[in-house]
Amino acid sequence: MQYHIPPLLFSSITKTDKKQYQDLLQNPCVFEAQSHHIHIAIYPFWLEEYSFPRRSIYSWGYHVRIENHNPNPISILKKNWNIIQSNNHIKTINTPIIADDNALLNVGEACDYTSCITLDTPSNIIKGYYTISKDTEQTFNIDIPSFTLDNPHELFSIN
Fold it and tell me: Could you count the other beta carbons within 10 Å of the beta carbon of residue 34?
């Protein structure tokens, strides 16, 4: 299946304050987790204009916010996510994060990015982690909050 990713939805990782995303951050559909003093919030949303259910094309966007409350600076190295689809297939996303200064978060800083995904099932669960580095020698994984991607027009949902 060829996936079409709308280019206008991508934004690079940027260090931000909460004012820039105030409307999105008040979205009631937020999935949050915290470990190692790092807070991760994911805000999924349905992309009606890029979804064609009769052709099994379902598209969602998601906004990710990562806040560093750790006493040390951290670098976000890569993400490893498993997508559990309603047809029992599992897709894995294992990609590096942009390697520049924006992936380094000092104490108290946050970064945000928005992305999208197109799948062939109307209901999905995403689980996974980010690989984080406190310095060049110590890496560890931070679990993302498990979150769902469901077609809001479907009656059946695995979630």
Answer: 14
